[in-house]
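Blinded run. Sample ID left blank on purpose so nobody reads anything into the name before looking at the predicted structure. Input follows.
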Amino acid sequence: MRKVVQHEHDTGFRLNLGEYARVLWRKKYFVLVPLVISVIVSNVGVRFLVPEYESSSVIRIGGIADVATEVDRFIQTGAGRRSRNAELGMQLEADVMGSAFLDELIRRMGMDQDPTLIVQAERQREMLYPGVTVDELVMRRLRNFLRQRIKVDGEGPGLFRIAYWDANPEACYVVTDAITSLYIEMQRRQTNQALQEVSEFSEEQLAVYKERLDRSERELARFQEQMAEQSTTTNPVTQGNAALSDRLRSDLGLTIRSAESTLERIRDPMAAQLGGVPDGDRIWRDPELRKLVSDLTNRREAELLAELSAGAGAGPGADDASGIVLTQQAIQRRLSALIADLFPDLAADYRPIVVEYFYQQAEINALKQKRDRLDAYIQTYRLRIQMAPQRDTELARLRKEVENNRDIYNTFANAARTTQISREAQNTELGATVFLVEEASKPLAPVRPDKFKILVLAFLLGVSIGAAGLLLTEFTDSSFRTVDDVEKTLGLKVLGTIPRFDRARWRHDSTRKRSIIWTVTVVVLVGVVIASFYSYGKSTREQLIDLDLSRSTRGATPEQ
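Blinded prediction complete.
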């Protein structure tokens, strides 16, 4: 353990294991003393630590009702499944660490009724928190106490371990079992509540969309009836005779204008000869004449239908034409009789003119009725052509609306049935989403502190400190060990050496003082370390809450 000088590089350096062994033996106390002290301190100090027992249970989240898990099996990658498992783990930890869950656990196990906790809370309220109730202080302390001791770890896909540690092995087991049972019960309760809300919402929406479906079906039926009525309504104007109908209307217009011109030519001379136009009100009030005029109008309309039918290969029959002529002759005869009766003073030569005048009025009226009917046919045909795209669009819209409303109605109906089945299944294991894989058990040995591990670490620490001290003293010591060291360093032959003298009194006293100082320092350090172990163990014991297991309701029947 000495420095290698330049001439050793020149002559070659050889590893002398014997020299290293002598150095190690000479300074063996540099290694043994820290090693023994660290082992003794750790062995004594570990006795002051509080033993910690741990109990755990394993649950599996997800069942046949968990659709997302089934879907993830097919569409998610490995990273996606790990992310899903991590999300479930965080959700489980948040649920277990939540205030609502812990409060129910505390009340169910009767932890909040502990007399010691109540007394401590009353003291804190009087001295520190006058505005906070005793119950709230007790609950806060218990919540913090449980959060520090509950641990949730993942064990695999959908598998999670819920652990709880405590100085009391019986309390450790009871609390772990209570946490697991309460979590499974709350999950089932929340699932039932969610299913109830879904069922109520589905039933409400089912009634709403049932009404919408009925209304849309009625609108569709009414629209289809209107289309059916329009299709069954006889309209002689079709695509095949549309051009013919326009031509007939033009011809009717010419005929009416010609008849009106004839009427004007008759009226002016008649008015000049008779001094005015005879009053026609008394003539047109005659029932027989009115019947004949109406018959003429009907025959003209029948004639129109016959003419329009000519576009389909048929034409007006001879019976229709002869009927019109006979009606015209009957009107003329009736007009002659009425004028003779109503105007007896009228000269016989002017009576034919007056008859012709009123006859032309009847003819013009019949022709105008015929034209109006033709206009109605043409307008209906054109409107139908224009409205055909809109009618088809409206029909498609109504059908689509009915289909959408029916789909939504069926969806809510299926949801209501599924919810009912799920609610029934929740009462059995088939509908469960949280399964107990491994029950909690009473721990037999503490998991912390691990005495063997602490002793091993203390051994390694002592060896490390001793080795560091040995190396430090060896490399900082520049004295010669042997005659060979002197000759190699100085390059001179040693002729003789001076033997050691007995230590002087002053040197003996100095060595004694240093020994006392080192001994006191070591004793103080050992005492400080052991006191630290003792203080840590004592503070841990003071923070512990001795749970009264007699109030636990672990064996009670869960609420349904």
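Unblinding after everyone has recorded impressions. Strands lie at 53-61, 150-156, 159-166, 434-438.
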